Amino acid sequence: MTLVWGIRQDGAADLTKRARWLFQELENEEAQIVVSAVSLSEYLVPVEPAKRSAVAQRMSDRFIVAPFDIPSSILAARLFVEEKKRRSGGSPNSRKVLRADCLIVATAAAHGATAFYSHDKGCRALANRIIEAYELPSQPGNLFEY
């Protein structure tokens, strides 16, 4: 969702603003941003089919779009098994959410990401097991923007 909030600027005003602050901060640091191909596919869902290729290309020009490959799949499987044991029950879609989170986190980690950002507490907890995970910033890097 961070991509949707920060790039498309679609969503709750507070989360959109926080995601924009994150992207601005990362751009100021000239950080390389890794986006999993799984996240990109989620981002492309509401895009008109005829425009998906162009949007995907623009995202690829701006970010490192990491594929879900063999190292990612091995790590995702490990995360899923370990996390499933830790969680008990949950909502009807909890398994699907966990699966998607594992794919996204594993892809980022397998492709060398050193930090992971998410507003989702469960996804951050999962990511924190293998990579540094952070909440979206609560204020801009430049306090005068606040």
Major sheet: arrangement of strands:
1-2
What's the mean pLDDT score? 89
Give helix % range: 55-70%
The end-to-end distance, rounded to whole angstroms, is: 22 Å
CATH architecture assignment:
3-Layer(aba) Sandwich
Structural class: mainly alpha
CATH homology group: 5'-nuclease
β-strand percent reads 5-15%
What's the structural domain tally? Answer: 1
Radius of gyration: 15 Å
Classified by CATH, the class is: Alpha Beta
Number of discrete helical segments: 7
CATH topology (fold) name = Rossmann fold
Features:
7 helices; 146 residues; two-stranded parallel sheet; 58% helix; mainly alpha; two-stranded parallel ribbon; single chain; Rossmann fold
Describe the structure.
The protein has 146 residues and is mainly α. The chain has a single domain (2-145), classed as 5'-nuclease (Rossmann fold), CATH 3.40.50. Helices cover 58% and strands 8% of the residues. The protein has helices at 2-8, 13-28, 37-44, 52-62, 70-86, 94-110, 121-128, and strands at residues 34-36, 64-66, 115-117, 132-134. The strands form two sheets. Strands 1-2 form a two-stranded parallel sheet. Strands 3-4 form a two-stranded parallel sheet. It is globular and about 45 Å long. The mean pLDDT is 89.
